[in-house]
Design goal:
Elements (H helix, E strand, L loop, with lengths): L2 H45 L3 E2 L5 E2 L5 H8 L1 H34 L2 H12 L6 H12 L4 H8 L11 H22 L6 H9 L4 H12 L1 H16 L3 H7 L6 H11 L3 H31 L1
Length: 294
Amino acid sequence: MTTATFDLAADVPKRSSAAGIAVVLLLPIALVNAIGFILPVLNLARMSFNEALPGGGIAETLTAANWTGLLQDRFYLDLIVNSVAVSLGITLATLLASYPIALYLHRASGAWRTFLTVLVISPLLTSAVVRTYGWIALLAEQGPVANVIAAMGFQPPRMMFNTTGVVIGLTEILMPYMILSLMAGFGRLDPKVEEAARTLGATPFRTFWRVILPLTLPGIALGCLLCFVLAISSFITPKLMGGGRVFLLATEIYDQAIVTLNWPLAATLSMLVLIIFGAALAVYSRVLRMIDQG
């Protein structure tokens, strides 16, 4: 046998040992995901094909009535469209508010950057419930924001217990996630490329539009995906700031499961949210491929 043959035979036990170690290391997280995520999702999928009985009972008979009724009911069709539209609007507002901050943080350095990063992360240390109640106090009819607008001579718009309040509250709550996602995706942004564009005579706006923005598209895509998923699945802020007048998928799931005790319909709506998550992930993957090819 040649030396190469002996080396190949010696590598086989090493590869087998490495594969065994990988299986042992991955087994705990695989079990956790199977017990904590996959099995509950499969249970929800099965429950979505059950029949709801009066008083909160569930008939074990399999039926597609929940899905057909969901797609034929005008209320639920409007609910789905409104939930997606509001979540997209929140995502866009969060992106516009967070992008300048993330870009500035990316260019900062030293202790100043550390201090600003801590300020960005600090809202995550506060409960979303507390932050939502803070916005309720700020946006109330006689709150500080309304008083400032009235002092300027304008009629304060209604900013509470409607979609406007929900958008404002969720935009602020999701900004740290967007900023961190943008900063994570700004690795391709090289200051030397910007300097080269300015040296060649590009205006600041043209430099941003043709150089900075294309290089930061991966971060934008990541931040938009994360914020859209969090927005469409958010419950606390829409429930409190919507005042029961803003109907979204998450609030409707709660009402069906806890108020009317229609668990099969709540399971159907939950599976619909997962389908929307999958569609958003597919769009994200497609966008990343387009960015890489472009």
